[in-house]
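SUBJECT: protein chain
CONTENTS: sequence, structure tokens:
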Amino acid sequence: MHSELVVVDYGMGNLRSVEKKLLRLGINAQISGDLEVIRRAKKLILPGVGHFATGVKNLNERGLWDVLDKKVCEEKTPILGICLGMQLMAKFSEEGNTKGFGWFDAEVKQFKVSDTLRFKVPHMGWNEAVPLNSHPYTQGLSGNESYYFVHAYHLVCNNTEDILGKTVYDYEFVSMMGRDNIIGVQFHPEKSHSAGDRLFLNFIK
């Protein structure tokens, strides 16, 4: 059975939580690492939890890297990157000193907080992501919503037009990105209750 929305399985994702959230929203989705299934997909979700370099390695070893790059860059297939999935969209990460897809002009940097007693790393728990630039993905958000984060690295974006939202944890960092068919969020919308629901539904629309 083929679904138009495919959650990409590359051995790093929070796959079942994403699937359960989509099912609760009445959204038909398929988890798959099958190249043909992904080639036929009309929309993609790239989740991820774990080490950047391991994610890159898994995508390459499974033949997914080039397929995803073609889908996103040539076919303009809509894609949502979650947590590590968004970080992989950057040019480079300090985590493993590894190149990413380069879909965004951005780098992934480790948190360097000023007070390690007040601000634990990884950044874990609930925090706001305040929308900045107007975009269909952030439609209906007030800026007061809280989302669930768990990450030790964050994006530094060189193109401010790509930044959809920012979060403050000791200092300000990019937590939502978007350009054309590509969306990325640092937090986990599948764990973020009604605010996460809104973001999934906006992506589907």
Remarks:
- Residues 5-204 form a domain with the Rossmann fold fold (CATH 3.40.50.880).
- The chain has one domain: 5-204.
